C-alpha cells in the first residue's frame, strides 16, 4: 500500500481547514464540555459560582494549533468573561510533556514490547473489516488492483516501528486502513452530508462498527501495553504525581493533549481495551480522562478515581448542547492512590523529559 490517492475511487471530500487544525464543530463541542464541567465543579463544591481565582485553575495545552484552540474553547465555555488564560510553551515543536515517544530502546525493555505487539498482530482477524473497506473503496475496479494485483488489504504483512525518540508505529495495511476509516469518521463527526462521507457508501451503524474495528485494533496493538504506556506517558505520570502531591495545588487543572496521551496513560494504569457504549472508537474526539483524588475516612487512605468522559457518535455529529438532560457518557475506575506513584516509578532508569509542576518556559 504505497500511495493513498491510488486507493481512492473518487476525489476525496474537501475540508476548509488545514490538516491538524481545530474545526468549528470541534470548538463548539469543547465549549459545551467546558460549560458542563464547570457546572459539575460547582456542584461538587470545588469551585464557587462566578469567576474563579486564577490560582485555583490551571489550563495547559500542547503546542499544536488544535490543542491550543481546544483549550481556549473549553475556557470560553467553562469560564466565560473570566480572566483565565491558557498556558502553552513557546515552541513549534511538540511539548515534551505531551510527546508520547519511546524513551528506552534497551533490549530488556524493547524485546517484551515488540513481542507483545507481534502477538497482537498475529491474533488479529480483520478479514470482515478489510472486506467491508474494500467494498467501500470499490478496490476491485481500481487500477492498483487491475494492473498490479493489489486488491486486498489482508495479504500484506504489517511491520512494527520502534525507535528511540519517536512514536511507536505499525506500518502496513492496518495503519493504512486506520487512516482511511478515521477520515471517514471525522467527516461524519463534522456533519458532512452523507453523500460526502465515504462517497455515500456507508449506509448503516453495522458498517461503521465493522470498519471502526480497524481503528480500534490498530490503536490496541500500538498503545495497549502497560510497559510501553509507562514509557510514553512517563512525563505525564510524573506531572500528575507532582500535581496531586503539591501542598496547595489548583482545584482544577486541564491538560489538553492528544488521544495518544490518553491511550498511554490508561495503559500505564493497566486499564485494558474497553468498549464505549454509543461510540465506534475507544478514544473519541473531545474525550476527557478525569482524575479525582479522594480520601476514604473509614480506611484512612487516599483513592484515585478515573472517569473517562466522552460524547456519543450522535452527540458529536449533531453538535447538540451538552447538559444534565443531554449529558456526556462516562466510564470509571478507582485505584489506590499509591498506584499512581507505582506507575511512574523509574524502573529502567529512564530520564524524564517532562516539566515539573509550576516550571514554565514562557
Automatic annotation (TrEMBL):
GO terms for molecular function: phosphatase activity. CDD domains: HP_HAP_like. Transmembrane segments: none annotated. InterPro entries: Acid_Pase_AS, His_Pase_clade-2, His_PPase_superfam. Pfam families: His_Phos_2. This is Glucose-1-phosphatase.
Amino acid at each position: 500500500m504505497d500511495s493513498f490517492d491510488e486507493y481512492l475511487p473518487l476525489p476525496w471530500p474537501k475540508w476548509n481547514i488545514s490538516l491538524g487544525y481545530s474545526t468549528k464543530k470541534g470548538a463548539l463541542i469543547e465549549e459545551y464540555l467546558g460549560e458542563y464541567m464547570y457546572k459539575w465543579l460547582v456542584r461538587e463544591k470545588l469551585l464557587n459560582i462566578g469567576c474563579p481565582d486564577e490560582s485555583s485553575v490551571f489550563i495547559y495545552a500542547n503546542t499544536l494549533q488544535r490543542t491550543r484552540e481546544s483549550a481556549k474553547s473549553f475556557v470560553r465555555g467553562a469560564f466565560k468573561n473570566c480572566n483565565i488564560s491558557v498556558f502553552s510553551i513557546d515552541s513549534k515543536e511538540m511539548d515534551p510533556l505531551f510527546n508520547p515517544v519511546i524513551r528506552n530502546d534497551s533490549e530488556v525493555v524493547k524485546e517484551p514490547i515488540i513481542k507483545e505487539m507481534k502477538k497482537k498482530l498475529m491474533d488479529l482477524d480483520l478479514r470482515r473489516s478489510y472486506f467491508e473497506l474494500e467494498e467501500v473503496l470499490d478496490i476491485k475496479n481500481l487500477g492498483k488492483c487491475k494492473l498490479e494485483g493489489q486488491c486486498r488489504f489482508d495479504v500484506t504483512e504489517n511491520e512494527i516501528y520502534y525507535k528511540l525518540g519517536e512514536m511507536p508505529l505499525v506500518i502496513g495495511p492496518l495503519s493504512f486502513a486506520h487512516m482511511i476509516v478515521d477520515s471517514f469518521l471525522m467527516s461524519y463527526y463534522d456533519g458532512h452530508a452523507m453523500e460526502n462521507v465515504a462517497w455515500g457508501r456507508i449506509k448503516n451503524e453495522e458498517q461503521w462498527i465493522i470498519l471502526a474495528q480497524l481503528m480500534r485494533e490498530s490503536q490496541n496493538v500500538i498503545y495497549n501495553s502497560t510497559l510501553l504506556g509507562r514509557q510514553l506517558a512517563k512525563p505525564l505520570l510524573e506531572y500528575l504525581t507532582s500535581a496531586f502531591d503539591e501542598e496547595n495545588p489548583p482545584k482544577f487543572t486541564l491538560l489538553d493533549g492528544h488521544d495518544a496521551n490518553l491511550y498511554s496513560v490508561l495503559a500505564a494504569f493497566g486499564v485494558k481495551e474497553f468498549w464505549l457504549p454509543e461510540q465506534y472508537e475507544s478514544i473519541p474526539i473531545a474525550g476527557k480522562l478525569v482524575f479525582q483524588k479522594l480520601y476514604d475516612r473509614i480506611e484512612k487512605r487516599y483513592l484515585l478515581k478515573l472517569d473517562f468522559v466522552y460524547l456519543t457518535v450522535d452527540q458529536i455529529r449533531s453538535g447538540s448542547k451538552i447538559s444534565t438532560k443531554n449529558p456526556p457518557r462516562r466510564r470509571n475506575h478507582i485505584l489506590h492512590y499509591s498506584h499512581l506513584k507505582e506507575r511512574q516509578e523509574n524502573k529502567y532508569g529512564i530520564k524524564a523529559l517532562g516539566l515539573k509542576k509550576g516550571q514554565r518556559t514562557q
